[in-house]
Specification:
Elements: H1 4-25, E1 34-38, E2 44-48, H2 50-74, H3 78-83, H4 85-110, H5 117-136, H6 156-183, H7 186-214
Antiparallel strand pairs: 1-2
């Protein structure tokens, strides 16, 4: 699978993170304590040193980029992963984009700008779920993304049905969460995000077993086949 385009996009986002950090570095005191964790009311409750706080997200984004770039080389079902290119790309850029948004918010907060970082993070995750959910149902069985159970990995029918349902749940979760952010308290949005994601996962697993049992072409042996 050709990963050149998402790799370039990912590296550009990391470059934006680094450039934004460099632009803000001298404006942040050396002894500053950088917020790295917030409660549901966007109150910082965990802090790090300047160097750690401003480098963590770019470093994590680089690690994730390397993982996404190299995984197609070691994926046992390379052809299937290549057929799932859209979902893979959305997941890749979505994760790095999420880290970029959070990093910019952290830097702005360190510079003294008051931001609802919890709300921003929840909104960004919701958008990622909507994007990923739209393509998950079109993916094919692989070992990296989607509902990966012993049943989906040994039955194409189970994979298709469970990932299609999970994808719809993720889209619904993202939409409901964004609505809760706009019209309700942040706590409701976080509850919707966690509950919806958990329901999507559990339903996907349950459906994978049900359709595996119904599939006359399922593989009872090695799931790598």
């Amino acid at each position: 699978m050709n990963v050149r385009k998402p790799l370039i996009a990912s590296l550009l986002l990391i470059a934006v993170m680094i450039a934004f950090t460099a632009w803000s570095w001298n404006a942040i005191p050396p002894q500053a304590r950088i917020p790295v964790h917030w409660d549901i009311h966007s109150h910082a409750n965990r802090f790090a040193s300047k160097s750690v706080g401003l480098s963590f997200a770019p470093a994590l984004a680089l690690v994730m980029t390397i993982l996404f770039a190299l995984w197609p080389r070691v994926e046992p079902r390379r052809a299937n992963l290549a057929s799932s290119r859209a979902a893979y790309t959305v997941g890749w850029i979505g994760v790095v984009g999420l880290l970029t948004a959070i990093h910019i918010a952290v830097v702005m907060g360190a510079r003294g700008t008051s931001l609802d970082i919890t709300g921003l993070a929840v909104a960004a995750v919701s958008i990622l779920l909507i994007g990923l959910g739209n393509f998950l149902g079109k993916s094919r069985a692989n070992f990296f993304l989607g509902v990966r159970t012993p049943w989906t990995l040994s039955s194409d029918l189970a994979w298709e049905k469970s990932n299609r349902l999970t994808g719809r749940f993720l889209v619904l979760t993202g939409v409901v969460t964004l609505g809760a952010l706009a019209f309700a308290a942040p706590a409701f949005a976080i509850f919707a995000l966690i509950t919806g994601s958990l329901c999507a996962s559990l339903c996907g697993v349950a459906v994978s077993y049900i359709y595996w049992k119904r599939d006359p072409h399922r593989h009872a042996g090695d799931v790598l086949e």
